[in-house]
Amino acid sequence: MISSNLRIITLLPSATEIVAALGLTDKIVGRSHECDYPPEIQNRPICTEAQINSEKPSAQIDTDVLNLVQKALSIYQIKIDVLEELQPTHIVTQDQCDVCAVNLDVVEEAVATLTHSNPKLISLQPNLLTEVWTDIERVATILGVESQPLLTQLQSRLEACRQKTQVLPEKACPTVACIEWTEPLMAAANWIPELLKIAGGNPLFGTLGEHSPYLKWGDLVTADPEVIIIMPCGFDLERTRQEAKQLIQHPEWSKLQAVGSSKVYISDGNAYFNRPGPRLVDSLEILAEILHPELFNFGYEGTRWQSLRVAKT
Fold it and tell me: Rounded mean pLDDT of 275-298?
């Protein structure tokens, strides 16, 4: 039985989605400024704010982030007065990426100043799919709910994709470059190479379980991927469409075979690929639909991803 005393604050989007998927949406009393799913949590008080302007061009955002990190300053701040007012029993945060959300150290410092509550901190640090499942199980255990129904459903969908792609011949699995940032160029890593393989692709860049690396244009040209999928961290489909213009304008863009064969795609990286929670399975299905339309049709095209050729019209 779910405790009626739960008062949960979630400080990153994937945490909000995990807690909601476990049936605890009504127990979320506060969220980060980036938490926007499920839609019903958008009226909850916002407990964080960013120190950078995400409306700036990609290159300037990257510079601003690096400047803060080099000065050992947090990219995000916690609204301690809001935390004090909400009196949470639990705060779900992360220690996986200082750029993606408020880090654990900042949360610990904020909690130490609270006088009206002493919330339990749950920190997530996933880099692989198995670690995402483990996080879901751990969050459920701490909050006193069952995780198995959710995990069974997610893993069943994942295996349904794997069963169709694992019998494909090697030549039917295209080489893929997933782009997580456009200027400077970055490849997607962490769980993305794993998702790509399950979806029937061969990832060219990014090491499984490690942070996303910067990428030189010369490396991209040399690797010459058969498919390019653009999924900038924190950007929705419309913003990604705008960011893709920077790639199109690069003098070496037209040299790529993916461009010549019209196999360049944009996706909603913010809602899907960047969030290590339940919707990583949606992300897998998006990849499968892009790479193997002859096998998969989940109905994501148009709203979750588009051909860049379509996006330019």
Answer: 97
